[in-house]
Amino acid sequence: MTLASVFYPMRELLPIFERQSQLLCDSAELLCEMQQSLDRDHWKTVYSEIRNNEHMGDAQLTEFREQSARALFTSGVRRELTTIAMALDDVLDVVKDASNALNIYQPAKIDPQLQDLSRIILEEGQALRSIFPLLSDIRKNASAIILLADRVTELEHEADEAYESYIGYIFTQEPDLREMTKYKNLAELYEKATDTEKRVSDCIRILMMHYIG
Question: Is the pLDDT reported for residue 206 higher than 80?
Fold first, then answer.
C-alpha cells in the first residue's frame, strides 16, 4: 500500500477529530467556569451543558467507527487512529464525571489548585485542537505537530506536580476529613483527564512514525 493510499482516507477522518477536540475544549472551558463560584444551581446548569457535549462526543465516535470501517488503512495506522478517537472520547467522559462530581460532592470551597488543574485540562485540549488540522499534511507540518505534542507533555508534567503538591496540601491543611476526601477525588479526576490527553498526543507521535518513518 502506498503512502498516498494510506494518507487520503486519514484526511477524510480529520474533521471528526477536530469536532471531538472542539467538544473537549468547550467542556474544559465550562469546567473552569464551574469553579469560579459556589452557586450550586449554576453547577447543575453547566453540568447539563457538559453532559450534552459528552453525548455529542459519543455520536462523533460512532461516526468515526463507521467511516474508518470503510477506509483502507494499514493495521498500524488503523490502530493509532482508533486509539486517538477513543482517547478523545475518554477525556470527554472524565470531564463530564468531574463536573458531575462537583454537583454530587458540593465541596465547601474550590481551592486555587483545583482551578489550576482544570486550566491545564483546557490548555492541553487547546494544543490538541491545534494539532488535528496540521495532520492533513504530516510531512510538511511535522515540526509544528511535534512542538504541540511536546506542549501537551509539558502540561501533563505540570499537572502531575500540581496534583502531588495539592494532595500533600489537603492532607496537612484540611481538618475536615469529608471535605478532604472530596478535594482528593476531584483532583484525581482532573489529573486523570490530563493523563488521557497526553495519551492522545502520544498516539499522534506514533501515527507520525507510520508516515515519515
Answer: yes
For residue 8, the surrounding DSSP H or E stretch is: helix 3-34
Element (H, E) at 184: helix 177-212
Q: Which of 163, 20, 160 is nearest to 87 (CA)?
A: 20
Distance CA 134, CA 199 (A): 18
Max CA pair span of the chain: 63
Report the alpha-carbon distance of residue 192 to residue 186 in Å, rounded.
Answer: 10
- Kindly state the DSSP code that residue 28 receives in the 8-state scheme: H
Q: Indicate the DSSP class of residue 36.
A: T
* Whole-structure pTM value: 0.93
Give yes or no for residue 48 having a pLDDT over 80. Answer: yes
C-beta neighbour count of 85 within 10 angstroms? 23
The tens digit of pLDDT for each residue in 64-73 reads 999 888 876 6
